[in-house]
């Protein structure tokens, strides 16, 4: 089993996990040193035995997350993403490291950044989005225009055209949803489960795909968005900045 360490999207290296304990932290005596003040001196450890790797948070100050959930212990699987401060540590089985590294990333547009720039993409999110994309019926694409009007945060008042079959929005590793266009239908689905911070019309979005209609309200974290269908395009107003995905 190998892990790949990235910071702010830049790869820092790969480490082959050996039998026994591998420690992670800011202090120089750790096996994997993460030089960031938000990382505890002895932050976490991975214990590998009989082909099973168990991650433990060592009572760190800022905690350890796996696939967006804070953990104390977690048995690691291929594709898991460990978040420690600004570092993302992706877990690979040895026979998949080259294949996964060569795979192009999936874009996740950041709602919490001006202009919604693409965010860091982890293997867990990529696998989930691919799985969701594969469940589309393959119906012919609709010519109907569907947009999201952003009602809060730094992008308030702007609009996003939902052109691609699958568009991912949110914050990688935390609240991430995908909007799915399937023929004339529009759906929303979670990428990461159980945060309780993703809602449709005031109701928490569970793991099931939810159909959307004009004027439905989607809340992701602190940001609200309203679905605007083609029949109400005149509501968009002149001079509104838009982003298009292809």
From TrEMBL:
Signal peptide: none annotated. It holds the Pfam family FHA. Residues 22-71 form the FHA domain. SMART domains: FHA. This is FHA domain-containing protein. It comes from Thioalkalivibrio denitrificans. The lineage of its organism: Bacteria, Pseudomonadati, Pseudomonadota, Gammaproteobacteria, Chromatiales.
